[in-house]
Amino acid sequence: MYDTVKERIRFYKSPPWRRKREEILKRDNYECQECKKQGKVTVDLNRFNQGTKHKYLDVDHIEELQDRPNLALTDSNLITLCIKCHNLKHGRYQKKVKQWDDERW
Ligand SMILES: [Zn+2]
Ligand SMILES: [Zn+2]
C-alpha cells in the first residue's frame, strides 16, 4: 500500500495525516519523546527554533508505514521525535544534523 516513495509522499501530504500530525505534536507537548525519555529536555530545540516551532520535530510511525499501513493514523503508533532522534532511529545520517552535536552526551 505504501511500498513506494511516491505513495508515502502522497500520504504525508494528505490532509488526514496533516491533521493527525498536529494532533500528535500537541499531545506530546511539542517535545521529542525520545530525548525526554533520556532526560534531555528539548531546551536545545528552542534555541534553533526561532519561531518555527515545528520545524525540528517529526511525527514518527513506531511501526513503519510500509509494514503496518493499517496503523498509519493510529495514535498509539505515532510519536513525536526530533529530527536527530528520527534519523538515528532509521539509521540515517545527515551532515545537516551535525549542528546539533554541540552538547556532550
Ligand atoms: Zn530527540
Ligand atoms: Zn520514522
Automatic annotation (TrEMBL):
Family to which this protein belongs: Belongs to the HNH nuclease family.
Swiss-Prot/TrEMBL keywords: Endonuclease, Hydrolase, Nuclease
One family name in Pfam for this protein: HNH
Organism: Macrococcus brunensis
UniProt entry tagged with the keyword Cell inner membrane: no
All copies of domain HNH nuclease, residue ranges: 19-87
Protein's recorded name: Putative HNH nuclease YajD
Membrane in keyword set: no
GO molecular function ontology, one term from the record: zinc ion binding
One GO CC term on file: cytosol
InterPro entries per the UniProt record, alphabetical: HNH, HNH_nuc
PANTHER family named among the record's database cross-references: HNH NUCLEASE YAJD-RELATED (PTHR41286)
